[in-house]
């Protein structure tokens, strides 16, 4: 039933798909009985607080040329609330579960990005995820272009920063191609989140949790490779479908 519900939620059109709800349904597979409405309520509360943080008048020390709404939100999110990247235990699977990130206020780039996106949307700020190689990013439009955010470190990225991330992930010492910075669809974000869990549970030879992750990947973006791996693990068949391919 949990897998069927996930397929139903994840199969909604992009503008109707609730990213947080779908991510929490991934959590529910590993944490049966998870109180999903509670965590959606936590995001609602954070969104309300974010709106107030963005709307409040700046103190003189904060009033710099770069003190726009997104900068104010980042100071509040990473400074006041204390969200941060878990560099000490990066591969802890808890870092890849949205409710754990909300409880512990630490995670990896993609889960921190999901929280940041959900908070921005609730605060009335436009933002999108970016499935950048090796390091998920967040982007927000500004006059004349976009700002890119590193959700792991909670800072805006300049051209040199972006090139360094690109070089670290690909070995290419050049600016990333524009296609690497396009907004990610919500279902693409879910696939990437699941891919992180796939890597973790595969390395730990945790067949039960790996099977659950692969089943959800097969729902979102079915491939022959996934089907064969699931057959080897004894995965459920046939798998429900989310109804749309992820490119």
UniProtKB/TrEMBL annotation:
| InterPro entries per the UniProt record, alphabetical | SirB1_N
What Pfam families does UniProt report for this protein, alphabetically? Transglut_core2 (PF13369)
Domain Protein SirB1 N-terminal intervals: 39-195
Q: Which family does it belong to?
A: Belongs to the UPF0162 family.
In its UniProt entry, what is this protein called?
Protein SirB1 N-terminal domain-containing protein
* Lineage summary: Bacteria, Pseudomonadati, Myxococcota, Polyangia, Polyangiales
């Amino acid at each position: 039933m949990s897998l069927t519900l996930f397929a139903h939620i994840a199969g909604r059109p992009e503008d109707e798909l609730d990213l947080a709800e779908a991510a929490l349904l991934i959590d529910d597979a590993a944490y049966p009985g998870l109180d999903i409405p509670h965590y959606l309520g936590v995001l609602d509360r954070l969104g309300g607080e974010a709106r107030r943080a963005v709307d409040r008048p700046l103190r003189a020390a904060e009033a710099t040329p770069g003190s726009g709404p997104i900068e104010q939100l980042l100071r509040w999110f990473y400074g006041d609330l204390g969200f941060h990247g878990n560099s000490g235990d990066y591969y802890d699977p808890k870092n890849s579960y949205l409710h754990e990130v909300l409880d512990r206020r630490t995670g990896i780039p993609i889960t921190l990005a999901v929280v940041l996106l959900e908070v921005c949307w609730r605060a009335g700020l436009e933002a999108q995820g970016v499935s950048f190689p090796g390091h998920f990013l967040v982007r927000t439009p500004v006059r004349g272009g976009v700002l890119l955010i590193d959700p792991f470190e909670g800072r805006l990225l300049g051209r040199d920063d972006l090139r360094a991330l690109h070089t670290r992930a690909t070995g290419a010492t050049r600016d990333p191609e524009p296609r690497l910075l396009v907004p990610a669809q919500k279902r693409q974000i879910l696939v990437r989140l699941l891919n992180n869990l796939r890597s973790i549970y595969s390395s730990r030879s945790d067949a039960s949790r790996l099977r659950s992750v692969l089943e959800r990947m097969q729902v979102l973006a079915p491939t022959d490779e996934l089907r064969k791996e699931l057959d080897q693990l004894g995965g459920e068949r046939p798998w429900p479908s989310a109804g749309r391919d992820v490119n």
